[in-house]
Amino acid sequence: MSTEPIAETIERESMPCDVVIVGGGVAGLAAAIRLKQINDEIEVVVLEKGSEIGAHILSGAVVDPKSLDELLPNWRDMDCPMAETPVTDNWHWVLTKGGKTSLPHLMMPPFLSNTGNYTGSLGNLTRWLAEQAEGMGVMVFPGFPAAEVMFNDAGAVTGVITQDMGVAEDGSHKPDFQPGMEIEAKYTFFAEGVRGNLTKIMKTKFDLEADCQPQVYGLGIKEVWDIDPEKHEPGRVIHTQGWPLSETGTNGGGFLYHQANGQVALGLVTWLNYANPYVSPYQEFQRWKHHPQISEILEGGKRVAYGARAINDGGWQSVPKLAFPGGALIGCSAGFVNVPRIKGSHTAMKSGMLAAESAAAAIAAGHENTELADYDANLRDSWIATELKKVKNVLPAMEKFGDDFGVILGGIDMWMRTLKIGLPITMDHTPDYKYLQRADLYKPIDYPKPDGKLSFDRLTSVAFSFTNHAEDQPVHLKVADLELQRQSELGVYAGPSNRYCPAGVYEWLEQDDGTMMFQINSQNCVHCKTCDIKDPNQNINWTTPEGGGGPNYPNM
Questions:
Q1: Which of 98, 184, 323, 483 has its CA 20 to 30 A from that of 401?
Q2: Has residue 371 got a pLDDT over 80?
């Protein structure tokens, strides 16, 4: 049995199972539960890099319960936290600097309605799903990132190796060193979420993106606030577009959801196809909170949590091949977000369930490490495909033609597909990093200073993500060529890493001799993956840090 990449020979313990799932989000846990529902004798292991299940989960979230209804029909009566707050009110605002226009619901296809949906913490939903999975006999291991993939001599995936613990920054073994374990499996599901480092390896090794468009992304920055009880309207859902992103020709939108316990979840998603290297998604979010319609809700309240993560925005045309010998991509590892609906949890869960059904059938037939071709075929014939095909041209139309004309074209296309008159057109994507232009074509943006009441500096915000990484460990943000970073990322693009990172990880510091040093504050990293996506030379590779490191989101 071989491994990639080849590492120092270390004696490791082995643990066999039927299915190992890399990632303890909603897709991975839905897959684990479905496997046990089909055959409770199937041995299932879930590996989660966060310190606990839900620690790294961040989403708005408004959840379509379609997959929950399929997976656990009685979930509303099982103390599921998502059942607490059904959506009661749905608003969509187009913001200008000081005002707003409300879009009437009649302009939007019926499937964009949030009737029947629920708003709450996706992290708490994930924790609840883990309890259901463990109650069925699933082995859930938080704090154990998968670091390497194992292959047999035929090149099929045969499992993963968990990350070594107790490795010093220079690569030496500390006194508490513990080697990772080999988890041998008949089938391996990659449910790492957006831009997972092992998923990237699988895509390259098996050429999974040969017949699809490149994935594109948004950066979602989110906070949770306790607000004045008199302003709280449980179940009210607000989405915004336009200002402030419109001022820099940038796309995206805001959200503010009135959830349980007198709290609101709010945030701004900035699509990462922006051209101006001086744009700071973090600062744009701070500006957005000062809009009169938003600040009116927040004033008198208190921020209690902060976080950020990238979002798959590519849609149907960016879905890669999903199955390969011994393994499969599920959830956001593949990318099933419906951008106009601002939802992806239901499609992620369904993908995990479909993969589980294929793997269970293969195991029952005595197979192992084969390609689950029926999973790929069944997903492409499922309601996931039906839903995503309706909206596949909305985002690329807005990318190409802007918020105004693009919204009109995307809306027409969406309505025509809803009425089954779809145009025979699938619009293309361009990778986000290719949009970034030279700094000398733009003027630096003078963002307002934070007021400490509605807006805050980044390091103060990171403290509200409860991020922690063990000291003296290898830097998990790998820069392939530091000289290229200096000459191009700094010299040509004026160091956009200092602005696109929502956690203050990257800095360019002038040394005594006048040279510039690329400082990586990896302990601040909230694992959003934006650097891996937006670096103009694709010179930064995000990898998993030591197990349990990163944010510890309590209610995101």
A1: 98
A2: yes
Q: Is 545:469 a contact under the CB 8 Å cutoff?
A: yes
**How far apart are alpha carbons 497 and 251 in whole angstroms?**
19
Question: Which amino acid is located at 488 in the chain?
Answer: S
Q: Are 35 and 191 in contact (CB under 8 A)?
A: no
- Over residues 185-206, the pLDDT tens digits come to 999 999 999 999 999 999 999 9
CA distance 231 to 275: 38
Q: pTM to 2 decimals?
A: 0.94
d(CA 530, CA 59) in angstroms, rounded, equals 16
Tokens representing residue 214 in the block:
């490149």
Please report, for residues 225, 228, 459, the alpha-carbon distance to residue 290 in angstroms, rounded to integers and kept in the order given: 15, 17, 20
> What is the DSSP code (8-state) at residue 103?
P
Strands 100-102 and 89-95: antiparallel
Q: Which amino acid is at 188?
A: T
Residue 508 has pLDDT above 60, yes or no: yes
Mean pLDDT, the chain, whole residue set? 94
Between CA 331 and CA 348 the distance in angstroms is 4
Tell me what pLDDT residue 8 has. Answer: 54
Contact 259, 225 (CB under 8 A): no
Residue 364 confidence (pLDDT) above 90: yes
- pLDDT tens for residues 118-144? 999 999 999 999 999 999 999 999 999
| Burial zone of 490 (CB within 10 Å; 0-12 exposed, 13-18 middle, 19+ buried) | middle
pLDDT confidence tier of residue 411, bands split at 50, 70 and 90: confident
Are 406 and 399 a contacting pair, CB within 8 Å?
A: yes
Q: How far is CA 439 from CA 204, 271, 494, in A?
A: 32, 19, 6
- Alpha helix (H) residue ranges in 365-474: 373-380, 383-390, 394-418, 458-463
